[in-house]
Amino acid sequence: MWSDVDWCGLVSAEEEKVAFVNWINKALEKDPDCQHVLPMDPSSNDLFTAMGDGIILCKMINLSVPDTIDERTINKKKLTPFTIQENLNLALNSASAIGCHVVNIGAEDLKEGRQHLVLGLLWQVIKIGLFADIELSKNEALIALLRDGESLEDLMKLSPEELLLRWANYHLEEAGCGKINNFSSDIKDSKAYYNLLNQVAPKGDEEGIPAIAIDMSGIREKEDLKRAESMLVQADRLSCRQFVMPADVVRGNPKLNLAFIANLFNKYPALKKPENQDIDWSSIEGETREERTFRNWMNSLGVNPRVNHLYADIDDALVIFQLYEKIKVPVDWDRVNKPPYSKLGSNMKKLENCNYAVELGKEKAKFSLVGIAGQDLNAGNRTLTLALLWQLMRRYTLNILEDLGDGQKVTDDTIVGWVNDTLRQAGKPTISSFKDGSISSSMPVLDLIDAIQPGSIKYDLLKTEDLTEEEKLNNAKYDLNLLILNFYDFTFY
């Protein structure tokens, strides 16, 4: 006999499979490289078979974070067990590079179609894509969601999930309806969805966008399932029916309903950027590549809570402590204040954590943290916070190299010496240091890869002399994808 927990898990997995298959079928329907497996039948196990050669996963990663994978590095034709393995490694390491937690997932798991692992990884990839534009730096109209007494900083600290909930309640309030507290139990009767669709549907007041009048008659259906179906018919008129079936709404599947709402927001935010508010627009900056690299690295290690905003989400140092443990620096958790923090004195508790984090860095990790105090981490000082994160990532990478080298201590000089020895043996030019100007062309790195795995570099795809900035970038994309494919722990560089 199945227990209630087992049965609910099976139902949820089946719902996710159907939702993801439909999403992938739509997203990749015109991609010529995927026609050998598309369209997939959502009622079958096509998804788990289709994931076996790595192509679908590579494509979905690029949809979520464009240009993550250089198409030239994906094996697409005359696939062999070896080239399939390359695709799967490329997909997994690229997923990690965009912030997915893939520690317990291997290429064999994807090849064999292990359902819970495939679904878990796909959800992470899809979610990253759905959430990509749900932040102030990419959608300044979100400022319309500011509440009385709130600062811009308060809004910028909200996670994508929190912003979506606030967005939904903003429109429900405009419609004169009660607010919801979640995308599970509070949406089961579909009434909030009906009112939300009615609010965000085009009204015909924007040039070139015809009005779509939502038929609200279905809200009076007596049965929840019929009401949900009627609501989804209206959502389909907005091309926003993806991710949920009527039963998913009625059961309150939180994952799929979150995806449904995120997709609706991305297509019809129905927000206008305030014009008369006294707002310092210059303070709304998107994250830099360096910041995104650190954030994705932390998330790939499975830190909890997930880091959505680099500085705001580590202001209590809890994530920093987890990173210390990843680099084998012991943390005395009895000294750590843990959430939920009381309103009175909460910042003091966070500051105490940050002070301890700096203490660990100086005394246990032996980092160079001159001029860095706990207050700097707590306040989100960019330069000083990045200085600590850089040393954490560096130590993490060096630890991996030491493990591979049977515990031998590794320094910059050790790495440069090994690089040059390897290049000389292959008859290729060497470098003077990590500051060598030739590295900007990517050729030393590509030569190194070819020296380690002869014949792995397709030099005919590259420009090697008198490079423009665009050609350097093109080489770098190829270079990074080969590193991701063959040498995962260099991904974040």
UniProtKB/TrEMBL annotation:
Domain of life, source organism: Eukaryota
Annotated keywords: Actin-binding, Repeat
InterPro entries: Actinin_actin-bd_CS, CH_dom, CH_dom_sf, Fimbrin/Plastin
Organism: Xyrichtys novacula (Pearly razorfish)
GO molecular function: actin filament binding
CDD domains linked to this entry: CH_PLS_rpt1 (cd21292)
Residue ranges of domain Calponin-homology (CH) in the record: 14-130, 158-269, 288-397, 409-493
Lineage: Eukaryota, Metazoa, Chordata, Craniata, Vertebrata
Designated name of the protein: Plastin-2
One cellular component term from this protein's GO annotations in UniProt: cytoplasm
Pfam families hit by this protein: CH (PF00307)
GO BP annotation list: actin filament bundle assembly; actin filament network formation
